[in-house]
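OP here, attaching both records as promised.
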Amino acid sequence: MRIAMLAPISWRTPPRHYGPWELVTSLLTEALVARGVDVTLFATADSETAGTLAAVCPRPYSEDPSIDAKVWEALHVAQVFERAREFDLIHNQADFVPLAFSRLVDTPMVTTIHGFSSPRIVPVYKRYQERVSYVAISDADRHPELRYAATIHHGIPLEAFPFDPVGTDDLLFFGRIHPHKGAAEAIEVAKRTGRRLVMAGIVQDAEYHARCVAPAIDGTRVRYDGPVGGEVRTRTLGGARALLHLISFDEPFGLSVVEAMACGTPVIAFARGAMPELIEHGVTGFLVDDVEGAVDAVARIGEIDRAACRASVAARFSVDHMADRYLALYRQLLR
């Protein structure tokens, strides 16, 4: 089986710190290669893979301002379809633009929909749904006007997330500094519960950060560590009493939620989007409706068995489970 895996080019594959789409693309690619699948990864030239790397874009456009996103995305997507006859299947992880090329080739195509940045992009998905097989990353993110071949949750390499059976007394915010991700709400919960808050992630909305987050960062009660990767990332995820994931949008998945639970850290989240699919209420964390509910949940966090958090991820969100589901889908389509 010869697979063309089309990654986004906003970040490197795998990303150095932030880049959830690129991370999932990398994890799936490497798992498929380990199973003997012939995978060509179409990504930025600085990407890393055990498969075959194909690249026209030298660097990620979110890291290098000299890279024009529209120009290099056009070149990046075009090279996959120019080589379509070399592959049994094209797996698109790079949003909606590649759909417009799908009728120009005979090669079957799978598109993982990582979320809808705006309702305005849905018409593109509707136009090509007869040609392309869509995968949802959660049942919550299935659009009612689209047909799907499967729902396949993201998986993570459990061995990369050491289990911390104790953690600390600190609360954790881990994600983009953006109103959607609930940074200000996390600060409020930490303040009302008298716990220190550790924050990690990129600043995606500078105005929101300056107005709602930065004034609270004092290095003592609220500490901001910036974007973290590697061993620091896993130590941060595991070294908390609980992860606060107080989102104000219907999040399609939530990798940091699964990663935290893999380390043994329970999650307190607003019950929106995919959160009820990821978190077992009262077992791996708490699903709440507002800040008051989150404050109450912090007081109950001692009820959660950290080993149960890791066991849940091992059973439901492993890379192996994700790769097996995708392989089964590929084989079904190729039959």
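Record two, same layout:
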Amino acid sequence: MTGKTKDGLSIGVLESITAEEKAEIAYFDQRGQQTVEPMTNYFVGRVQKGFNKGETILGGMITAVNRNISNEHLNFLHRAAYTGGFDFLYTWKERTYYLGVKGIFSHVKGDEAAIYRTQTSSSRYFQRPDANHLSLDSSRTSLSGYGGTVRIGKKGSGRIRFESSLTVRSPGLELNDIGYMRYADKIHHGTWMGYYIREPFSIFRNFHLNLNYWLLWNFDRKLLSQHVNMNFNTQFKNYWYFNGSLTRNFESLSSTLLRGGPSFLNPGYWSLNFNVSSDRRKKFYYNFGRWLGIWDNNTSINTSYWGGCTFRPSNAMKLSMYPNYGHNIDKLQYVTQVETEGSTRYIFAKINQKTIGISLRLSYTLTPNLSIQFYGMPFISAAKYSSMKRITDPRADQFTERFHTFTSEEIKVNSEDENYSIDEDGDGETDYTIDFPDFNFRQFQSNLVIRWEYQPGSTLFLVWSQGRTGCITDGNFAYYNDMRDLFSIYPHNVFFLKFNRLFFIVLL
């Protein structure tokens, strides 16, 4: 439910309950059912109000997730997850300048297994041996965290615009039960400044140049990364577009590359990209571009190409096709980690990966109230691994001293078992094995949506979603074979109906 009171208070409430879900489990000739998702309640509440004719805005939000967990095998899930926050925006000088403040907190509860899983997840890795400011506690049954952002800047129609911001996410912050959060334990500072020319000059209709930098620390006050960037965007008088960017990422300290291991000193790199687009007012227009990343010490090179076209045969129909291709060669790609002789071996390799995808869209308006939209994307990626190695000194000054590449005497290929045998000490006995990491990943996702607005503001949606996903341990990129095999995969189809009703309530 959403709406606004006559005093200008905006209110939004979402309440959803999902039933317990069971799956049929088959093990040889034994079959049975097992709960794979408990009954769960989701709640989101949001309020916001403007003051001084909208120059000041104050808002708040709370969320709650409560799961009815009655099966021990689901104890890895949080029983309860709560978040809350506020947002404040103050503008002055006809809303040209602004100051924004946001704050947030989170609290999750559950079995010891659930909270242990949260502490060791990829968002935080409390188990890192060099994370002196963190401690992993396997007996915890709750975890709390906080975060916030402060930003100040200038917007408007002037030629100069800028913003500077500081964002904080404590190690215990957790939003993934009802939101999305890639990482915690971070302090981010960034500043950008843009110069805009909005009046036509020379061959340009407008021009925009932007310069920015950003820095990242953790809560141990260690500087993790530094970045500087320049980008531009322009439109010519013939309505063609051209934009691009140049970025320098300096040597950085990654706390996630070893998946819970010590921090690793990553080489810096340069990246460059550009994009060209023809006149979008035409019935037929197209664009193309490229991205290139080159890492220091010749450790990696990553390039991607994209392009495509859009065709509007009539005002009611629009067709588009946008393929993309990427090629990544990286000398230091994570493979796995192995526990042996009381220590952990972090195994990496050189990867040669090729990826291609094609985005297809169709939009057709039959009547002002009835329309059809289709989206489909076949996606194929294949990767070969070679030059297997283990990390030895993740912070060594020289890049080549941070790892040891296995020699032919130390590593043997077992094609029949599809693994590698590692003999580190040269005694002729296998110390551990590693499965072949090569893969061919194939996926197709599509959505067909029929939308009918049966009365103003009230709509009915009929949706058909289909997905096909498969993977084999081959690694050889062959577009025709992969595409053929992709559409031989048994599909997963979902049909659903969405009903939207607009009505008004008058409060006396």
